[in-house]
Design a protein that fits this description.
The structure holds 2 protein chains of 2 kinds. Chain A has helices at 10-22, 46-50, 133-143, 156-167, 188-197, 248-252, 291-306, 382-392, 437-445, 451-458, 468-481, and strands spanning 2-6, 29-34, 69-73, 77-81, 86-89, 94-96, 99-102, 106-108, 127-128, 149-152, 172-176, 203-207, 211-217, 220-226, 231-233, 236-239, 243-245, 261-262, 274-276, 281-282, 324-325, 333-337, 349-356, 361-368, 371-378, 428-430, 435-436. Chain A is α/β, with parallel strands linked by helices. In chain A, α1 packs parallel to α7 and α9 packs across α10 (451-458). Chain B folds into 4 domains: 8-56, N-terminal domain of TfIIb (Single Sheet); 65-131 and 362-508 and 517-523, Rossmann fold; 139-338, Dimethylsulfoxide Reductase, domain 2 (3-Layer(aba) Sandwich), CATH 3.40.228.10; 591-703, Barwin-like endoglucanases, CATH 2.40.40.20. Chain B has 23 helices and 28 strands. In chain B, the strands form 7 sheets. Chain B has a 7-stranded mixed β-sheet, covered by helices on one side. In chain B, α4 crosses α14. The chains are: A alpha/beta, B alpha/beta. The interface between A and B is large, with 59 and 65 residues. Chain A: Belongs to the nitrite and sulfite reductase 4Fe-4S domain family.
């Protein structure tokens, strides 16, 4: 069987790995056609590169080396002939397929803003998307001379880009026309808490204000005019206003497309030999744009094609694939499931909220029956990590779901780190030998007056020896405060 | 023969730390004291201090027992018992072939016994089917160390080296309970704020990281591999690797780096529940302590918590990869190690009681290894069988079509210690012949057709190899009770009755000499050692210690300083991605069960449950439940709780504590009967090592509305009774 994969990005390359790992009978010969000249890399981490935290080589993903695999890099697919089952590339080569997988991904959407179209689809100098390794390289170069950067769009990528630029030392203004930052995930209350944290990390938020035009002089960006008339002087604009699925060849091949190539729950298009996964696909439940969904599709399709199926896994239940964590230094935002201001009313759901804006904290959980179906966490720390674990595994919620909002304080018995006087009698002082304060007090009452005496009488300190200081302290205290022997 | 009045220098009968002890015979009983030695520095835990009580166990076996026609087990003579065993073994062998007789050994046997048991299986019984309970203990670490480093020695450095390190990453080890005196060696890392404990539970060991002594990462059970891949991600992506070391001493780093590129911290957090902040902090601590960045040293150590998993080998491989990326392995003051569990877990796996190995850590399918060992045994290499079935597969095959019809058990209590324990009992009951050698009527002995009373610890001579690969002398301090015999003698008698080839020594020193010859040239080479040398130097030597013509070899405290025993001399990054635990939680079983140990008990509890002081301090099984989970199920402290998986249920008393995650309960596994955690655990195994997945399965938790608290049976029970040390009414 000839399996052709168009796209060698995060999802396409993962799919190829998954298929080859499962194809133990050697059913498939696989050809991958990838437009980018480099090996597959982890696009999710581009903002870490811009931030200066990671170098580009650390983004490279596994690239299987397999006798039945051919990878064509720097080669774009030009057309699909579904009748003859042939993919033609831009360099004219033809690749017959028995099954075809489209993993063509998406491109940054550039808004129709005056000044941005510099002719022929090119952008003015100083204006960039953040979608590819080349974008990241260009942005890093541009930060060297930039006095101020503007990020257009405060979705997840926009906020990550703004944070990365700020970490580079470049002052950043983030411009967002909606009423809330990340409005798909955050309501206004959560957005307000997030916005108030931004100035501390070098980001100036402009919320509810759009960009009216890019001001360009000599082909070079000099500023952004906002809809309220203000002009932000800037020589670097990062556009983060969403993505558009790469549908060209699917559309030309006559495959039904809306925002993506329409596929069924198993990734099949209207043509039973053609499949689509990742950002270019539009499954019945809708695309999230998150890599977790794309990887899940890759694995599910690999299992379908090779006739293998793994045991049910927690993240295969549909839940858990829509967890969003913003990777931005100093900004702690995690959302999952039901969240955001625009969500429909649902009477089966119960929403609980911890609102602590003065401390930069906002936690909201949405519970349906005994399940956590959504959460919004800003500045929540470990609580967010715990909620993600509960959400992805469908852990039954506590009897009072308010317990989800906060980590309870420790209730366990204290070890002997307190003062001798306040230490409870039943506190264990020597763990290795199970010796309590009461045991030591009793030995003291029987005449033990040195650590050696106490050790001989109780075995305290004779294991790892770590309690020696505590035993010395207790001995000193007993010497001065020992109560009169009790008549027991 | 009167024993000299002075103390006998020996070592503790329990765990792999093998704390040095002085045994003094006073008025016919042994008194125990700690003895100075680098590992325990004179210290002992409660188990060690009370260890002599096992010598005086009131139900000590002193006569062979045979199940008679009535089904009751009855005393008999040694000759009658051995004749019967030999006759039945011959019948079964003649009818079903030699592989129809199987042998199950233990990691508590001395080196001499482990060696002789492997030899007995191969050339007296002629069976391929021998394996041991170390398969439940060390096999994942073993497989990973062999693949990555070329040899498996739990700690390839002296334990005392840990003291100089600024950071120690401890994964799935609760050594504060399992080998308490070892905690002393963590003091340096704790003082530097660098003790990083990865455990789903705030165990006593995890608490050692409190108060600024380090970090506790508390992942969802079964997600240790993603935690490690996340740590590798941070180390690679932030450029914290020891690039020169990686280039000169390793291969395969690029594959490891690429896999780690797909495990960025936010993804790790979503899978494991360990926050990005904690993950990065842990990686930064380790990197800062690494020699390439000017630190004083760092260690990565694994224990059963991460190894007893269906992806245990991959997890240990990732831990080794982390140590390699940081340039730790084969450097003085840094390294990777696996903390061995059982007393002779190390030596027990070197001398041939594993299904695929011959003495000296030789592989049984290697023709040169077979020839060498056959020469020592005085047999034709062709009569040595090939690979047998690993433990879980072996136990599952008992009494089935094509499976063994007879089983000999030495130093193991399978009905408590094996996963899916009720199933194991069913398989044992399906046998035609079960022979158990033990010192007390363990739960497994209670099911046997023939029970042979054998020697223990201070009653015999031998050697043990500790967690740091050091060969220690175990010495006799007291005469055994009349009627009990050495297993070396048992095998010699049976070998003679079975008409076996070869010489069957019964003196441990002579068996050691033979073992040393068999190990010569192997990975674990003991050929430069003898009881006489170990006694004369009164020092313990780390293997390998090959024979020399002149000055004796000093032993090898630290491995890998110059190169790795791999074909190219380099360590290998072996890469495997996460596939998750075999059993995921879901609506039908929404809670994880993790199992482990308590300080007062050792393994199946067959010894420690018989020590009054230990049984008094830790009398019964319990289940730790988080307050939020307890509240959800209406569980109060002290309630009787039932924990149920797809395999079975266990009942225990609730301890309500936030030491466990709200999505997880914990049970210790030392008890038999309805309180046995291993009735619930999963017997799915790691595809590489055969290690069962003891440490995570999916369960439901419910309060049992029984008014009566569990009644405690006597600490010991007679044979032939179904009663166990702790019975809970059903």
């Amino acid at each position: 069987m000839r399996l052709v994969v168009i796209g060698n990005g995060l999802v396409g390359s993962r799919f190829v790995e998954d298929v080859l790992a499962r194809d133990t009978t050697g059913k498939y010969d696989v050809t991958v056609i990838g437009a980018e000249g480099c090996e597959p890399y982890n696009r999710v981490l581009l903002s870490e590169v811009v931030a200066g935290r990671y170098d580009l080589t650390s983004l490279t993903l596994p690239s299987p080396d397999h006798p039945r695999l051919t990878v064509l890099r720097g080669t774009s697919a030009a057309a699909v002939d579904r009748e003859d089952r042939v993919v033609t590339t831009t360099d004219g080569s033809r690749h017959r397929y028995d099954q075809l997988v489209l993993a063509t991904g998406a491109s940054a959407r550039i808004p129709p803003l005056p000044g941005l179209d510099h002719g022929g689809g090119t952008l003015p100098v100083g204006v960039h998307a953040l979608r590819t390794i080349d974008d990241a390289r260009e942005i890093i170069a541009a930060t060297l001379n930039a006095r101020r950067a503007v990020v257009l769009g405060a979705g997840v990528l926009g906020i990550e880009a703004a944070s990365a630029l700020a970490q580079r030392g470049c002052p950043v203004t983030i411009v967002h026309p909606a009423d809330a930052l990340m409005e798909r995930q955050l309501d206004t209350a959560a957005s307000t808490v997030l916005a108030s944290a931004m100035p501390h990390v070098g980001i100036t938020p402009r919320i509810g204000v759009g960009a009216e035009a890019a001001i360009v002089a000599d082909g070079r960006l000099t500023g952004i005019r906002l809809t309220d008339g203000e002009v932000v002087e800037s020589d670097l604009l990062v556009v983060a206003t969403g993505t558009t699925a790469n549908l060209g060849i699917a559309h030309d091949a006559g495959l039904p497309c809306e925002r993506g190539v329409l596929v069924d729950e198993a990734g099949m298009t209207a043509d039973r030999r053609v499949f689509a996964i990742g950002d270019c696909a539009q499954p019945p439940e809708g695309a999230t744009g998150l890599v977790a969904q794309g990887w899940d599709q890759a694995r599910a399709l690999a299992e379908r094609l090779t006739g293998t199926s793994a045991p049910a896994r927690p993240d295969r239940n549909g839940s858990g694939l829509d967890v969003v964590r913003v990777k931005a230094h100093g900004l702690d935002v995690v959302t999952m499931g039901v969240c955001g201001g625009a969500r429909p009313e649902d009477r089966r759901q119960r929403t609980l909220r911890l609102s602590d804006p003065d401390a930069g904290r906002h936690v909201e959980v949405v519970v349906e029956g005994d399940r956590l179906v959504g959460a919004t966490c800003v500045g929540a720390g470990q609580v967010a990590a715990d909620l993600v674990a509960a959400y992805t595994r469908r852990t039954p919620v506590p009897r009072d779901p308010a317990h989800l909002l906060l980590n309870a304080l420790a209730t366990s018995a204290p070890m002997a780190s307190g003062e001798p006087e306040t230490l409870p009698d039943d506190a264990t002082v020597c763990r290795c030998n199970g010796v309590t304060k009461a045991d030591l007090s009793a030995a003291h009452a029987c005449g033990a007056r040195s650590v050696e005496d106490l050790a001989a009488a109780t075995r305290a300190t004779t294991g790892c020896g770590g309690c020696r200081d505590e035993v010395c302290g207790l001995l000193d205290w007993l010497d001065t405060h020992a109560p009169a022997p009790s008549p027991t | 023969m009167a024993r000299p009045p002075q103390a006998v220098a020996s070592h503790c009968p329990y765990c792999a730390l093998q704390c040095a002890q002085s045994l003094t015979l006073c008025s016919g009983t042994v008194e125990v004291a700690g003895r100075d030695f680098p590992t325990n520095r004179g210290g002992l835990c409660q188990k060690g201090w009370t260890s002599a009580a096992v010598l005086r166990a009131p139900d000590r076996l002193t006569t062979p027992l045979v199940r008679g026609r009535s089904g009751e087990i009855e005393p008999t003579s040694w000759d009658a018992a051995l004749d019967l065993i030999a006759m039945r073994l011959k019948e079964i062998r003649d009818t079903h072939g030699p592989d129809a007789v199987a042998v199950f050994g233990g990691g508590g046997l001395t080196n001499e016994k482990a060696y002789q048991l492997g030899k007995f299986a191969r050339i007296a019984l002629g069976t391929a089917n021998i394996d041991y309970n170390g398969r439940f203990c060390m096999s994942s670490a073993v497989a990973a160390m062999n693949r990555s480093l070329g040899v498996d020695r739990g700690l390839p450095f002296p334990l005392t080296d840990l003291g100089g390190a600024d950071a120690i990453l401890l994964l799935g080890s609760n050594l504060a309970e399992t080998m308490p005196p070892a905690v002393a060696h963590l003091a340096g890392a704790r003082a530097a704020g660098g003790l990083i404990v990865v455990d789903p539970r705030a165990s006593a060991t995890a608490r050692l990281a409190d108060d600024g002594a380090g970090l506790h990462l508390q992942p969802v059970p079964g997600t240790d591999l993603p935690v490690l891949l996340g740590l590798l991600h941070v180390v690679f992506a932030e450029g914290l690797t020891d690039a020169a070391y990686v280039a000169q001493r390793t291969t395969g780093a690029e594959d490891a780096r690429r896999l780690a590129a797909s495990w960025w911290p936010a993804r790790v957090e979503a899978v494991t529940g360990v926050s990005e902040v904690q993950l990065r902090a842990a990686a930064h601590h380790l990197a800062a302590a690494s020699p390439s960045r000017g630190g004083s040293g760092a260690y990565v150590l694994t224990g059963r918590g991460v190894e007893q998993s269906s992806q245990g080998t991959a997890t240990v491989g990732a831990a080794i990869n982390l140590a390699l990326a940081l340039g730790l392995v084969g450097r003085v003051g840094s390294g990777y190690g696996a903390i061995t569990g059982q007393g002779n877990g190390q030596g027990g796996r070197e001398h041939g009681q594993k299904s695929d190995q011959l003495p000296g850590y030789r592989m049984i399918d290697d023709p040169a290894a077979r020839a060498h060992v056959a020469d020592v045994w005085g047999v034709d290499p062709a009569i040595i069988p090939g690979k047998g079935r690993p433990a879980v597969e072996l136990l599952d095959s008992l009494g089935r079509e094509g499976g063994p019809r007879a089983l000999l058990v030495h130093g193991a209590n399978l009905r408590v210690s094996a996963p899916n324990a009720r199933h194991v009992t069913d398989r044992l009951d399906a046998l035609d012949l079960l022979v158990v050698c033990d010192v007390v009527p363990s739960e497994t002995a209670q099911r046997a057709d023939v029970v042979l009373p054998v020697l223990q610890w201070a009653e015999e001579e031998g050697t043990m190899t500790s967690l740091e690969g050091r060969i220690l002398r175990r010495r006799k301090a007291i005469e055994p009770p009349a009627g009990a015999r050495s297993e070396l003698w048992v095998w010699s008698e049976l070998a003679s009755r079975l008409g076996a080839p070869g010489v069957w020594e019964i003196d441990a020193a002579l068996v050691f000499d033979e073992l040393a010859r068999a190990s010569a040239g192997g990975r674990a080479d003991y050929s430069g050692l003898s009881h006489a040398r170990l006694d004369a130097e009164d020092a313990a030597v780390h293997w390998p210690c090959p024979a020399t013509d002149g000055v004796p070899h000093p032993g090898t405290p630290r491995l890998f300083l110059d190169d790795f025993p791999t074909p190219d001399g380099r360590a290998r990054f072996v890469v495997a991605d996460d596939v998750g635990p075999a059993e995921a939680t879901g609506p039908d079983a929404p809670t994880h069960l993790v199992t482990g140990r308590v300080l007062q008990h050792y393994q199946s509890g067959a010894q420690t449950r018989r020590v009054a002081e230990l049984a008094g301090a830790s009398p019964e099984p319990f289940v730790e439940v988080h307050p939020v989970l307890a509240d959800r199920h209406g569980i109060e402290p002290g309630d009787l709780v039932e924990v149920t998986s797809a395999r079975g249920s266990a009942r225990a008393i609730a301890r309500v504590t936030d030491a466990v995650r709200p999505d997880t309960v914990f049970m210790p596994f030392h008890w038999a009967g309805v309180g046995s955690a291993n009735r619930v655990t999963n017997d799915v195994t790691d595809p590489v090592s055969g290690m069962p997945e003891f440490k995570v399965c999916a369960v439901t938790v419910a309060r049992l509305d029984l008014a009566a608290p569990p009644t405690r049976a006597p600490a010991t029970t007679g044979l032939g009774r179904a009663a166990t040390a702790t019975e809970v009414p059903t």
